[in-house]
Amino acid sequence: PGFDSYWRFHRDQFLALLPPPGRRTLDLGCGEGRLSRDLKALGHTMVAVDASPTMAAAARDADPALEVHLSDAADLSFEDGTFDLVAAFMSLQDMDDFEGALREAGRVLTPDGRLCLAVVHPLASAGRFDGDDPTSPFVIDGSYLGRNRYEDHIERDGLAMTFVSEHRPIQAYVDAVAHAGLLVERLVETDVPDSAITRPRSRRWQRLPLFLHIRAINPA
Question: What is the C-alpha to C-alpha distance for residues 69 and 83, in angstroms, rounded to an integer?
Answer without folding.
Answer: 15
